[in-house]
Amino acid sequence: MHLLTTILLLLLLRPAEPFRKRGPRSGAAERGTGGRVRGRGRAGLMRRQTQECKEYVEAGEKYLDCQDRQLTTVMQDWPKDIHHLLLARNKIQVLRDNMFSQFTQLKSLDLQQNDISMVEAGAFTGLSKLTTLLLQHNGLKTASEEVLLPLPRLTYLRVYDNPWSCHCSLESLVTMLQVPSHRNLGNYAKCAEPLSLKGQKLKKLNVELLCAGDNQVIGRPEDRDRGPRPPTIKLKPEATSMCHTYMFPKPLLNCSSKDLNNIPSDLPSDIVKMDLSRNNIKHLRPKHFCCPKTSSCSTLAATACRV
């Protein structure tokens, strides 16, 4: 009993100062360090989510889906043996020299719906097996044939819905697009300027007009402003400007949620699937989806027209 009483007294009389000093410091240090670690963890997780892509195999070919990742360039740690690289809807502005040179097995490259305004001459160096290049819905104004020289197997090129500046610097590219054997290169792309060439398709443009003088306008400016203006003609929406084309894994024309009142005109003949959901279309005219007899009909057209 005496021994137990002595032990209790010693415990009560033991100094608490070290615990009071060490306790708060230790807790604060743990909270501070833990907070910083957790903060870095969140930032790292966000970076990984931003850069992380989906890799899968379909029909024996490897796909790397990096769409909607807020990317401004390609990553060096991506697998180099992929066959199809999907980079649509990112924030890429410039295609630099040798940007894709590590992907030597690449067959298709989807860069649509970015902010691309410049393509350096060697951007596609090393892509000798590439057959499909999608650059529509970007900010390209000019480019030369030199950009496409590293792509000897290129058979499908989409560059529409870019603000093409049809001046002399575009001559070599337009000339290349108009070669008869290049029937699937540059279809639907149009001039945005100068005013005298606005709306003309690059595939059908008279190349001589590109260097003939960009500001030639008939009549004086003051004469053009006189008299009544002709009525504005409301044209049907065009599929090339209103909708988005996807080639992989299957050709798709996505016109969903475009506030359309009519079926878009100028439907590409090689599309096999079309999405017109969530629009304001109320009237389907007879044979609206029929293709010309000279071209192949899409699955949708064949179903609607029973041709």
From TrEMBL:
Know the name of this protein?
Uncharacterized protein
Q: Which domain of life is it from?
A: Eukaryota
